[in-house]
Structure formats: structure tokens, C-alpha cells
């Protein structure tokens, strides 16, 4: 092949490649449909309706559970005696799993042990029921008779059998006694945060060990949040129960049923070691 033929062949190949390039076109990419504004609004409304339906279902669980209850008229906090069992526990869907038993407490005298499961108080389940929290402390206050006696269904950790145990609760300090003392304070959150309508504020006065671990709950309160972003509280204790070399702190949580929405991120000490008896607590997500 001479030089002339070589140039001719190269030219033919070049022209052919250009033709192939012009003939090939990429497959068009499908366009993403634009969702109309009305559809987005309908979907947003549907999401809100689903959330409201779920909230109504949780309330139905409460109503069905409490519908059988013969609720006694509540006395004012200043007249009502509060009772305590003397355990710390974890809420589960089978009951409250005992994590610690306070020595010389009602639970200790009744033979409670770590990993026992408290299933019911006077026949009413505690823990989480269909996503709704039934607090053990609240149930004890509701079910205890005038002498502080309740019957509890316990799953024994040793043999996993269910046992009915009659428990004489301890007084959490007589509210009208000469040694009645209070811790006061407020709990607040940012005004721009919108909360679900059924939120409840839970405030606890805790006794802590040197490492800051919870030993026991001295007193607790549950308050409906409503539309207020600053809530006042008052916690009661018996001055004779305060140990000078222990630390005491107030813990606050805002809950929507079993879900914690906000809580304090700092530790608010009270009572001992020159700590105040009034605290202003800030909670956040």
C-alpha cells in the first residue's frame, strides 16, 4: 500500500467515526414529575391525621385500662400522704424490671431482688402497655389504701414464677408533720418549640451516691404541660431523711406517654453541700 492509499483509508475511517457519533444519541432521562402543591398539602394533612390517630389510640388504651378503676377522690397534696416502695427500675412491656433495691425499704422487707419484674399493682399493669407508660410510682399512690398497703404481682427472678406479694409501703415523709420541708423551682424550655398536647412534666428529687448514681427517689411530681413554657413545681421531703454526706439533685423530663421529649442536660444539686433549695431548670431535646 502506497502513501496515497494510506491517506485515503485514514480519511474514510475518520468520516465513518464522525457519522457514527452523530447517529448515536443518549437515551432521554425520564423527568421526575412535579408534585402539585395541593397533593403536598393533602399528604401533610394525612401525616397529621395519622399522628392524631396514633395519639387517640394511646389514649384509648389508657381509657380501656382505667375504665374499670373505681377512682377515689384525690386529696390536695398538703393532705395526701405519699408512699414509696424503695426500688429503681426500668419500664418494659412486661412490667417494671427491678434494677436496685434500697436497703431497709419496703421492697427490701418484702423480699424484692434485682431482676424481679413488677407486673401489676392491685391488678393494674405497670410499665409500658401498647406504647403507653403507666408509671409505678403513680400507680402506688393511686392504689395504696389509707395504711399504705398494696398487693403486687411479681415475677420471681429465681424461678420465673408469678407471685402475689402484699407490701406495706413506707411513707415518703408526712406532708403535715413538723419535719416537712420542700424544694421549689421552675422548669422551662424554649418558647419556639411546639409540644404535643398531652405532654406531662415529670420532676424527681433524687438521692445520689458519690459517683452521681441514683440511690432512691425522695419525691416526685407529674404536671400537665399544656401551653405554658415555664412550669413551677414543689417537691416534699422529710428533713430527717436527708443524709449530710450525700448529694441530692432534681431531675426533670417532659414526656409524651413513654417517650422522653426533653430533659435537663445539667445536674441541679439541692439541699446539701451548700446547694440551694430552689432551682430553675432548663430542659432541651
Give the key terms.
single chain, 285 residues, alpha+beta, 8-stranded mixed sheet, 6-stranded antiparallel sheet, 18 strands
Summarize the structure.
The protein has 285 residues and is α+β, with helices and mostly antiparallel strands. Helix content is 22%, strand content 38%. The chain contains 4 helices and 18 strands.
Verbal overview:
By secondary structure, the protein is of the alpha+beta class. 22% of the residues lie in helices and 38% in strands. Strand 8 and strand 9 form a beta hairpin. The longest helix is centred in the N-terminal third of the chain and has 30 residues. About 4% of the residues have low confidence.
Global outline: elongated
The span between the termini is 83 Å
Question: Which spans have pLDDT < 50 for at least 5 consecutive residues?
Answer: 68-79
Q: How do the helices and strands follow one another from N- to C-terminus?
A: HHEEEHEEEEHEEEEEEEEEEE
Largest sheet: 8 strands, mixed
Total strands: 18
Going by helix content, strand content and strand pairing, the class is alpha+beta
Strand content: 35-45%
What's the quaternary structure here?
single chain
DSSP summary: helix tally? 4
The Cα radius of gyration reads 32 Å
The proportion of residues forming helix, as a percent range, comes to 10-25%
Summarize model confidence as the mean pLDDT. 77
